[in-house]
Amino acid sequence: MTLQQLEYAIAIGKTGSFVLAADLCFVTQPTLSMQVKKLEEEIGITIFDRSRQPVTITDAGKIFLDQSRVVVREKNRLMEVLSAVRGEIAGEFRLGIIPTLAPYLVPLFLTRFVEKYPKVHLEVEELTTALITQKLKSESLDAGILATPLDEPQLHESFLFNEPYVAYLSRKHALWTKKQLKPDDVDAGDLWLLADGHCMKNQVLQLCNRRKEKGNGQHFEYRSGSIETLRRMVETGKGMTILPWLAVPALSNKQQEAVRYFRTPEPVREISLVVHRAQLKKAIVDALTEEIQNAIPVHLRRSVKQQVLSIS
């Protein structure tokens, strides 16, 4: 029995296909099939039922694969410990980030991080808070960048910055003439909002301290997963929406005329780098944290006279 054979079997269990598993492991399908067959002969059980498509895992195979994942995970952790002892910043790192933050934050730090740490293979995926939390607990992600606090005992949160929220108004909006807003100025019934499942929606409704009962004076409601779509809906001439501060610099001068900031204490969302408490990739986590904080404006790292909104 070899670690490579275990990795092949785990890949089949993950994909449900010998062909896809071979692609995932960068080997030919006959090579993978032969190695898994040898493994089954050695341990004396059939791991996969090949008579079905997709391939199914036998009851005995489930027990074997569960323990195999533990073995492979511990091997990977051993390699991470050895890299840390040698002072290397290297290895695979899987990062999840919420969609309302990713388009604005990732371009600020990604290129520099990749150039500075060429031995790190960074995989970035946009996911909701619920999915990031789930994947961190199962250790299928190494870290997540998202709004906090989560209050999850298994996870550790490291503060990155506080991001203010700003209002984005239609030129026909009654608040257009105001230079600064108070949260009480915001009518939830006049807002274009994100769809359910985005924690930013909960924070925005908390900001205006009201439930949304109707949408923008229209005979329809539009639920979007994209902040950019909501911004464009405002630009059609109706209502308003709430944007995160990092979305503002990319706006044109004309678009920035529609931005209104909130009076002190300004509403903000707390952004943190979150890892599993058993995380061993500390060197990569520390390097990533440093690059992110170096990439954002200094004033975002302060928390003076701000109202931090909860995510629930």
Give me a quick take on this structure.
With 312 residues, this protein is an alpha/beta fold. The chain is 40% helix and 21% strand. The chain has helices spanning 3-15, 18-25, 29-43, 59-85, 102-116, 129-137, 199-208, 227-235, 253-256, 282-295, and strands at residues 48-49, 56-57, 91-97, 120-126, 143-148, 155-169, 180-181, 240-244, 259-262, 266-276, 306-308.
How would you explain this protein's 3D organization?
There is one protein chain. The protein has helices at 3-15, 18-25, 29-43, 59-85, 102-116, 129-137, 199-208, 227-235, 253-256, 282-295, and strands spanning 48-49, 56-57, 91-97, 120-126, 143-148, 155-169, 180-181, 240-244, 259-262, 266-276, 306-308. By secondary structure, the protein is an alpha/beta fold. It folds into 3 domains: 3-85, Orthogonal Bundle (Arc Repressor Mutant, subunit A); 91-161 and 270-303, Periplasmic binding protein-like II (D-Maltodextrin-Binding Protein, domain 2), CATH 3.40.190; 162-267, D-Maltodextrin-Binding Protein, domain 2 (3-Layer(aba) Sandwich). The strands form 2 sheets. Strands 3, 4, 5, 6, 7, 8, 9, 10 and 11 form a 9-stranded mixed β-sheet that branches. The chain has a two-stranded antiparallel ribbon with strand order 1-2. The longest helix is centred in the N-terminal third of the chain and has 27 residues, at 59-85. The chain is elongated and about 75 Å long. The two termini are 48 Å apart.
Task: Give the SSE map.
Elements: H1 3-15, H2 18-25, H3 29-43, E1 48-49, E2 56-57, H4 59-85, E3 91-97, H5 102-116, E4 120-126, H6 129-137, E5 143-148, E6 155-169, E7 180-181, H7 199-208, H8 227-235, E8 240-244, H9 253-256, E9 259-262, E10 266-276, H10 282-295, E11 306-308
Parallel strand pairs: 3-4, 3-5, 7-9, 10-11
Antiparallel strand pairs: 1-2, 5-10, 6-8, 6-9, 6-10
Helix pairs in contact: 1-2, 1-3, 1-4, 2-3, 5-10
